[in-house]
């Protein structure tokens, strides 16, 4: 596992798992960037989920340019070339994760992607599980992989839920199902949570 931060980031960290391992995410990070910060063309080995906590960023996929607003998200399949054009309203804070394929457990067929990239505003429900994911990755010891997997699966389930809702339906600080799943995980850290179990207990269809 490798943790790093580039010199031009204001704060935050980036994480990369060891190739060929069993860790549930390939890459992840929490980043604060200054206005005008850019990230060149790149692809990911797995599905990437991005959540804009504060500020706004502009992205490009092929010839398509789109903006991710504050509390917005995007989801992009593996192998699709994309780039960050820049932060459009001063400094910005965001989270991202690239899922290891087995973590999704075959549910990628349910992900709301009808075009090369899915993006939406009003994705507040992702904030708490993303914060939990960052904490779990930073853990030391045997619980790191278990808790990281549970939060990653919670994020995958939440983005499916977001994809089935109108943006205005997600106006709170977090979707009740996501909040309940987070409480289950944090109060039972030793339990090997699976996505179908979390979905059933939180009232979300798998």
Describe this structure in words.
Helix content is 27%, strand content 29%. Strand 6 and strand 7 form a beta hairpin. Helix 2 runs antiparallel to helix 3, helix 3 runs antiparallel to helix 4 and helix 4 crosses helix 5. The longest helix has 21 residues. The protein starts with a strand and ends with a helix.
Core attributes:
5 helices; 11 strands; 4-stranded antiparallel sheet; 206 residues; 7-stranded antiparallel sheet; single chain; alpha+beta; disordered N terminus
Topology order in helix (H) and strand (E) letters: EEEEEEEEEEHEHHHH
Helix content: 25-40%
Low-confidence stretches: 1-5, 166-174
Class inferred from helices and paired strands: alpha+beta
Largest sheet descriptor: 7 strands, antiparallel
Strand order in the largest sheet: 1-2-3-10-5-8-11
Gyration radius (Cα, Å) is 16 Å
Strand content of the residues, in percent?
25-35%
Provide mean pLDDT, rounded. 76
The total beta strand count reads 11
Tell me the span between the first and last alpha carbons.
30 Å
If helices are DSSP runs of H or I spanning 4 or more residues, what is the number of helices? 5
**Backbone shape:** globular
How are the SSEs placed, and which strands pair?
Blueprint: E1 2-4, E2 11-16, E3 25-33, E4 39-42, E5 48-54, E6 57-61, E7 64-68, E8 73-76, E9 82-87, E10 92-99, H1 101-104, E11 118-120, H2 127-137, H3 143-163, H4 176-187, H5 195-202
Antiparallel strand pairs: 1-2, 2-3, 3-10, 4-9, 5-8, 5-10, 6-7, 6-9, 8-11
């Amino acid at each position: 596992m490798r943790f790093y931060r580039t010199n031009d980031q204001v704060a935050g960290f980036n994480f990369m798992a060891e190739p060929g391992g069993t860790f549930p995410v390939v890459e992840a990070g929490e980043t604060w960037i200054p206005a005008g910060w850019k990230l060149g063309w790149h692809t990911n080995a797995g599905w990437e989920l991005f959540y804009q906590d504060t500020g706004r960023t502009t992205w490009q996929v092929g010839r398509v340019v789109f903006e991710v607003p504050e509390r917005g998200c995007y989801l992009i399949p593996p192998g699709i070339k994309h780039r960050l054009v820049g932060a459009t309203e001063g400094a910005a804070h965001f989270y991202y994760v690239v899922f290891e394929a087995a973590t999704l457990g075959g549910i990628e067929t349910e992900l709301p992607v009808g075009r090369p990239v899915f993006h939406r505003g009003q994705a507040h429900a992702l904030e708490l599980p993303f914060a939990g994911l960052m904490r779990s990755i930073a853990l030391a010891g045997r619980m790191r992989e278990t808790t990281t997997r549970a939060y990653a699966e919670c994020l995958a389930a939440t983005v499916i839920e977001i994809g089935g809702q109108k943006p205005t339906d997600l106006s709170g600080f977090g979707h009740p199902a996501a909040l309940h799943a987070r409480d289950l995980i944090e109060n039972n850290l030793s339990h090997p949570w699976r996505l179908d179990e979390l979905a059933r207990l939180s009232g979300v269809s798998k």
